[in-house]
């Protein structure tokens, strides 16, 4: 699937040009700054999509816009920064997503990028849906499949946008030129359309597709679980939405071929992205010439600055440290607990760094000794995750970094996304798939639905399945919780343990209605400025400026 999309994007990149106003489209030459552009395809007219090949190319191209958000720094900033689990590291130009200060406004590049690129994706889907009745030379089943994929993708694009922005411009037909008379459709109506699109797509999709990254019935059930569990917490939602979400989640669990990977560490092993637990993922490739300008970049953002330390230099195995995200004390001390029983701390963080240079070097953070002497391959840094006495550290022939020493440059490195198969140590584009939904996530969301309906005893079965998998060998029974422990407060921590850094936390906190509360409690860098207004992102100013009537017709979100 990933190579197919890469090739199709190369062929179709110049076919679609979007104006800034959402969804304006014409089939002509692509602007030269489009990140998906690689190969010039000239002399292709608007009628190309009306051919069987053009229609199929457009369906495949519609997937490509997922890459503009997922597994990029924009997705990291908007889903992980400014939460209870992660705060800012030393580097990066988008710390405003953690600080929640005045720089987070309608001129911010990430809100502009997400709005622009996902509306491009929506309009590509609209073109496929609108043209689906016009294509000659394709079977009814092929046409129905293409339209169904487009509807499911349109629903996903709108679901991502509505969680960040609230009321949207709900555009359901292909746009062939700039439109300036638009208004914001209510969040409730957007959710209704998202659900309608997913439900209409479902019958024409295969139960399980043979191509990773394509929409199928399993993926739709997974996304409807997320949609309904989120809708249930909105003012227009109800407890009945939790029951509907539960139904879709149980279908993912019981009606398809998914099973929990036996070992938590194997989930993140290189080459195992397409495992039995993945429900839907965005596809990437190491073939950078055909990758449309986008690779998976999350290997960059969770790394500490290890390459300046004694006996160390930058190596492909660990990666290029951009130091964007640093775990909070809540993550260390409340999330990653019971470490002798629960393996997820050991299997989520890198604890040992090997020397890449031989010699004697002055120490950096660990001053229990003045120097260390190492050969290449010796341990240079050990991070046990707990405080160790100076006397004990002095016995070790390497530096021991304990939590009290951590700072914005040196901290625990999340190892889930490391990608040593990149072309070189400085190459920022990785090729690993990015998983949007996996089965453990589904189990925990189903448990959440059950707790919200007062069915704690049943919720325990789903939580304990996930927890037993995370246990060290022989300790599964010690990981089990009781019915009395199956509370939302427990689930807040459990989702953090299981899904740490995987792109769910900001939307989780917003869904739970405790984003402001928990950020104030657990993220000191963010606590001073965060307000209720930050449950939504600012609408891009350039979008408002291009609408007839400006802010009156298309108002900015409150507070911005």
Report on this structure:
This protein is mainly alpha-helical and 560 residues long. The protein folds into two domains: 2-296 and 539-553, Serine Threonine Protein Phosphatase 5, Tetratricopeptide repeat (Alpha Horseshoe), CATH 1.25.40.390; 298-428, no CATH class. Helix content is 39%, strand content 8%. The strands form six sheets. The protein has a three-stranded mixed beta sheet, with no helix packed on it. A two-stranded antiparallel ribbon has the order 1-2. The protein is globular. The model is unreliable at 2-44 (pLDDT under 50).
Can you give keywords for this protein?
560 residues; mainly alpha; Serine Threonine Protein Phosphatase 5, Tetratricopeptide repeat; 2 domains; 21 helices; disordered N terminus
Would you spell out the secondary-structure blueprint of this structure?
Blueprint: H1 2-12, E1 16-18, E2 25-27, H2 52-64, H3 73-79, E3 86-88, H4 96-99, H5 109-131, H6 140-165, H7 187-201, H8 217-231, H9 239-254, E4 278-282, E5 325-327, H10 329-335, H11 344-348, E6 349-350, E7 352-354, E8 359-362, E9 371-374, E10 379-382, H12 390-394, E11 399-400, E12 413-414, E13 434-438, H13 439-452, H14 456-470, H15 476-479, H16 488-499, H17 505-512, H18 515-522, H19 524-527, H20 541-545, H21 550-553
Parallel strand pairs: 10-11
Antiparallel strand pairs: 1-2, 3-5, 4-13, 6-12, 7-10, 8-9
């Amino acid at each position: 699937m990933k190579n197919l999309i890469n090739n199709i994007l190369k062929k179709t990149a110049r076919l679609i040009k979007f104006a800034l106003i959402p969804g304006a489209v014409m089939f002509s030459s692509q602007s030269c700054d489009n990140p998906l552009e690689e190969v010039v395809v000239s002399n292709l007219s608007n009628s190309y999509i009306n051919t069987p090949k053009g229609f199929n190319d457009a369906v495949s191209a519609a997937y490509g816009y997922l890459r503009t958000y997922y597994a990029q720094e924009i997705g990291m900033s908007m889903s992980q920064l400014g939460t209870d689990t992660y705060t800012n590291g030393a580097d990066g130009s988008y710390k405003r997503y953690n600080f929640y200060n005045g720089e987070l406004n309608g001129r911010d590049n990430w809100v502009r990028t997400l709005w622009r690129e996902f509306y491009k994706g929506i309009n590509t889907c609209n073109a496929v849906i609108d043209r689906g009745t016009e294509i000659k030379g394709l079977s009814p089943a092929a046409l129905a499949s293409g339209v169904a994929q487009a509807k499911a993708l349109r629903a996903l694009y709108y679901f991502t946008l509505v969680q960040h922005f609230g009321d949207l411009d709900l555009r359901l037909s292909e746009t062939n030129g700039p439109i300036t008379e638009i208004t914001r459709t209510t969040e409730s109506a957007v959710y209704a359309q998202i659900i309608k699109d997913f439900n209409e797509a479902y019958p024409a999709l295969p139960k399980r597709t043979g191509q990773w990254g394509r929409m199928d019935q399993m993926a739709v059930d997974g996304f409807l679980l997320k949609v309904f569990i989120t809708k249930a917490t909105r003012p227009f939602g109800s407890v009945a939405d939790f029951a509907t979400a539960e139904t879709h989640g149980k279908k993912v669990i019981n009606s398809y071929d998914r099973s929990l990977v036996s070992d938590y560490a194997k989930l993140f092993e290189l080459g195992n992205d397409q495992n039995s637990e993945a429900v839907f993922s965005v596809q990437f490739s190491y073939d950078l010439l055909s990758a449309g300008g986008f690779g998976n970049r999350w290997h960059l953002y969770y790394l500490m600055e290890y390459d300046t330390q004694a006996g160390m230099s930058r190596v492909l195995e660990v990666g290029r440290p951009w130091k964007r995200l640093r775990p909070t004390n809540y993550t260390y001390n409340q999330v990653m607990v019971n470490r002798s029983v629960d393996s997820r701390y050991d299997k989520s963080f890198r604890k040992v760094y090997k020397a890449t240079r031989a010699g004697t070097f002055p120490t950096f953070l660990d001053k229990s000794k003045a120097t260390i002497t190492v050969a290449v391959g010796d341990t240079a840094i050990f991070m046990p995750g707990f405080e160790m006495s100076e006397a004990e550290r002095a016995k070790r022939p390497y530096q021991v970094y304990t939590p009290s020493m951590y700072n914005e440059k040196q901290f625990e490195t999340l190892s889930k996304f490391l990608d040593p198969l990149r072309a070189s140590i400085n190459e920022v584009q990785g090729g690993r798939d990015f998983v949007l939904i996996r089965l453990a996530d589904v189990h925990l969301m189903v448990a959440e639905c059950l707790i919200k309906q007062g069915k704690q005893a049943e919720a325990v079965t789903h939580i304990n399945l996930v927890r037993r998998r995370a246990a060290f060998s022989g300790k599964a029974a010690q990981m089990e919780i009781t019915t009395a422990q199956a509370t939302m407060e427990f689930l807040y921590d459990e989702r953090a343990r299981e899904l740490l850094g995987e792109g769910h936390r900001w939307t989780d906190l917003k869904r739970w209605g405790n984003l402001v509360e928990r950020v104030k409690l657990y993220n000191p860098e963010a606590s001073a400025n965060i307000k209720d207004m930050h449950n939504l992102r600012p609408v891009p100013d350039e979008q408002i400026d291009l609408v007839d009537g400006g802010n009156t017709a298309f108002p900015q979100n409150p507070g911005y």
